[in-house]
Amino acid sequence: MTKTITRLFDDYSDATAALHDLERLGVPHDSISIVANNADGAHGDAATSLGDVDDHGDVSRGVSTGAAVGGVGGLLAGLGLLAIPGLGPIVAAGWLASTVVGAGIGAAGGAATGTIVGALKDAGHSDDEAHVYSEGVRRGGTLLSARVDDTLATEAEAVLDRNRSVDASTRGSAYRQDGWSSFDDTAPAYSREEVAAERDRYRSTPTSTTY
């Protein structure tokens, strides 16, 4: 049996550190997915098209950003630039990327396909977690998700938690204080300035999770 473990990170470097720790733990890179906001252009210029995904969920159209963000192999070498309604400009790789791309294509074409919220719920996350995680990416965060064997689940969760992951319940409460209720894939993407302000808001806040 496998379990899907997902965490949100305010800092991309924390997410990649956790990703490398997961790989060292023995989690294969094709069982890990990463979706990161790129409104600030830190990973290159945002793609104007949505991109394709291969059999492993790796984005194959657009610009490969692996070298630019320090990925010399494994999952990070397959990062691709995307522009997704609701999320805005992102970089993504792994199994969740296929759902993100599908959501973008559906929004662009007016058809209902999968969404990142739906994928997270299908993976076993609560409705609240799925919406907070998706909104977190929209506001500048990085989402890291791994499908791990039950025997590795506890260690994998510890890996993500010690790399400054965000408590979904606490972050959701903070969002709601500002009037937020749920992730809306028709909402305008955050601008570079808005993402910077959102990251500064939580930069000095302790981040950990019990999920």
Q: How many individual helices?
A: 7
Shape: globular
Mean pLDDT across every amino acid position: 77
Helix/strand-derived category reads alpha+beta
The major pleated sheet works out as: 5 strands, antiparallel
Strand content: 15-25%
Strand tally is 5
| Cα-to-Cα separation, first versus last residue | 19 Å
Roughly how much helix do the residues carry, as a percent range?
25-40%
Rg, rounded, reads 15 Å
N-to-C series of helices and strands: EHEEEHHHEHHH
Catalogue the unreliable spans: 46-73, 103-114, 206-211
Please indicate the count of domains: 1
Main β-sheet, spatial strand arrangement:
1-5-2-4-3
Overview of the molecule:
The chain is 37% helix and 16% strand. Helix 1 runs antiparallel to helix 5 and helix 3 packs antiparallel against helix 4 (127-138). It has 211 residues and is α+β, with helices and mostly antiparallel strands. A hairpin with a 3-residue loop joins strand 3 and strand 4. It is built from 7 helices and 5 strands, in the order E-H-E-E-E-H-H-H-E-H-H-H. The protein has a 5-stranded antiparallel beta sheet, sandwiched between helices.
